[in-house]
Amino acid sequence: MKLEAWFGTLDLGEDGKVLASDPFSKNVRELALRSLSLREAGKGIPPAGFDLRSAALACGFVGSPEEYDSLLHEVTLDAAKLQISGALTPDQRIILAVEALDDVNETVNVLSERLSEWYGGYFPESGLSGETLARFVAKYGSRKNVAPEDPLYAKAADSMGAELEAFDEELLKGFATSVCSLYDRRKQIEAYIESSMENTAPNLSLLAGPMLGARLISIAGSLEKLAAFPSSTIQVIGANKALFKHLRSRAPSPKHGIIFSHPLINTSPWWQRGKIARAVAAKLSLAARTDLYSGEKVPSLAEKLDAKVQQIRLLNPEPPRKKPESGLKPKGKKKRRQ
Questions:
Q1: Cα dihedral across residues 153, 158, 160, 166: positive or negative
Q2: Taking the domains of the chain in order of start, what are their residue ranges?
Q3: Which CATH number describes the domain made up of 90-195?
Q4: Burial bucket for residue 324 (CB in 10 Å: 0-12, 13-18, 19+)
Q5: Is the CATH code 3.30.450.150 the one for domain 201-315?
Q6: Listed residue (146, 151, 149, 139) closest to 161, CA to CA
Q7: Which of 98, 115, 288, 294 has CA atoms 20 to 30 A from the CA of 137?
């Protein structure tokens, strides 16, 4: 009987004694990798009652029980580090990036509103907001510093806003610079998600776009879980409130979840959106499975989806007619005369 142990290969007799052995070197990383490979393959499990420590001493792998215990401790620690370092798969990195993007969006929206309210007292005629306002304040500060070639120069010169003190100007410019850095960080995260989706899920990125595809993976929990979802689940994923309301009461079932942001759906007339959402979800399900099991980009998926959508639009050019409601009250049973 041959036993693949973490420290070497052993030939065992019927009585469990070691007949021959081929011990490995004492390189901790090599032994850790071997230990992990044996665990994944389901090998390396000794017979009941077999003492691996005694076998390692008998074959000359170690010189004492203390050395065996110390080396085994180092190998198991290194194997655990390898497992942790390899646990973050590409789709998990995409999920973390999506969550970070949501946090940045929430923070930058709150800070942009605060900057708009704060700077509005000094230059209410600017009409700027969001990133444009943050760039403007970070560049000029006070409206007196606006360059003549700037389109807002005339408004700045005749503004009815309060005067901006030097200390306030320095504080506002620093605040606006911080907001600008968040906008820059958001662009970096979006670029990272786009490149990661192109490498990890090219077909999903092709059909849904990198941002929508990444959010589908994030809500599902992984690309593997998304690929296991039926198309009906992908169609309504993200519409939890509407779905629960439908299940609890007589509210209509949701026709789409976050895939509503897909341009094929949100640009279509209302009476076509349900059918188009169903077609898009079916192709997204197929794209997720293709990305999981092959990883090769299949351009024909997008062509087939476009053809299906065109067919839906041709077959449903006008909204459905509502059935006319009768104004007559239902007839009740006539009472019999006594």
A1: positive
A2: 2-85, 90-195, 201-315
A3: 1.10.287.4070
A4: exposed
A5: no
A6: 146
A7: 98
Place of tokens 């700077």: 119
What's the fold here for domain 2-85?
A: Nucleotidyltransferase; domain 5 (3.30.420)
- Residue 89 DSSP label: -
Q: Is the pLDDT of residue 210 over 90?
A: yes
Lateral strand order in the sheet of 2-5: 2-5, 8-12, 18-23
**Cα–Cα distance measured from residue 95 to residue 222, given in angstroms and rounded to the nearest whole number:** 8
Cβ proximity of 62 and 24 under 8 Å = no
d(Cα 326, Cα 14) in Å, to the nearest integer?
Answer: 90
pLDDT tens digits along 305-337: 999 999 999 998 888 876 555 444 555 555 555
Residue-wise pLDDT for 142-167, tens only, equals: 999 999 999 999 999 988 988 889 99
* DSSP one-letter code for 5: E
Token pair for 122: 């000094």
